[in-house]
Amino acid sequence: MNIIVFQQNGSGQHKISGLKNYGKDLEIKEIVSIDQALPDFIDDPEEFISSSFIADLVLDYLPHPDLSHYLITLCKEKKIPVIASGRKNSDAMTPFTCCGLGRHKRLGAYGERFGFPEYRVELDDGQRIVVLEVLRGAPCGATWDILSRVMGLEVEDAMSTLPREIQYLCSANPGRFDPITGKSPVHYAGYVHRAALKKACRCYGYKTNSIST
Q1: CB–CB of 39/20 below 8 Å?
Q2: 85 or 24: whose pLDDT is higher?
Q3: Which of 191, 154, 185 is nearest to 171 (CA)?
């Protein structure tokens, strides 16, 4: 799968590292970095982004709205799916956070590996976590990175520890609140990981109605 990442001043580096560490059969073919100082408004974004790229998937980590909008427009013309987390653009996939991405057929192996977290769990005597396997997780790698901090905990303790540890590792902007839910991306990341753990425990047979919300 031919993945191209667009970033600005290292804005995608955390997720690039996660993709390389946990991407399995995925490979980033190219990283386009725009590192110079930019004006507040860019009238000619083509000076910074060439239209000659070819890809199966584009990851947009460009914080500058003019560059991001231009990149998404190019991808639409080229019929290339683009993920631009936290943006508002109907021509791209724009989950609230990278770990809020649903499953989409066009995303191929990337969509199978990254997005809404999914765990497989095994419990000792129905209470303590002895196996915790990531089936799908955040591209930043946090879903995998917290495993050692949760292994061996009782489910009730894990339900509070896991989202807290995820929030420590989350690189999203904590100041960008969702006006509907009132949650920041950091809070949201903790919430979806807790929900994933709760679902995994329920699938194993744990009575999740005993877990405090």
Answers
A1: no
A2: 85
A3: 185
For the record, the structure tokens of 41 come out as 């408004």
Strand order in the sheet with 82-83: 27-34, 2-8, 57-61, 82-83
State how far Cα 117 lies from the chain centre.
Answer: 9
Task: Report the amino acid identity of residue 102.
Answer: G
The pair of structure tokens assigned to 22 is: 């946990």
CATH 3.20.20.70 fits 2-94, yes or no: no
Q: What is the CATH number of domain 118-210?
A: 3.90.1010
pTM comes to 0.90
DSSP 46-86: GGTS-TT---SEEEEE--SHHHHHHHHHHHHHHT--EE-TT
Q: Which of 15, 10, 9, 13 is nearest to 145 (CA)?
A: 15
Question: At 145, is the secondary structure helix, strand, or coil?
Answer: helix
C-alpha torsion sign, points 41, 44, 49, 55: positive
CA distances from 64 to 2, 99, 172, 194, 201 (A): 24, 21, 15, 32, 41
CA distance 143 to 179: 26
User: Can you tell me the distance from the alpha carbon of 70 to that of 49, in angstroms, rounded to the nearest whole number?
Assistant: 8
pLDDT in tens, 83-102: 999 999 999 999 999 999 99
Spans of all domains in the chain: 2-94, 118-210
CA distance 43 to 190: 38
Chain segment 196-211, per-residue pLDDT in tens: 999 999 998 887 665 6
Q: Is the dihedral of CA 52, 55, 57, 60 positive or negative?
A: negative
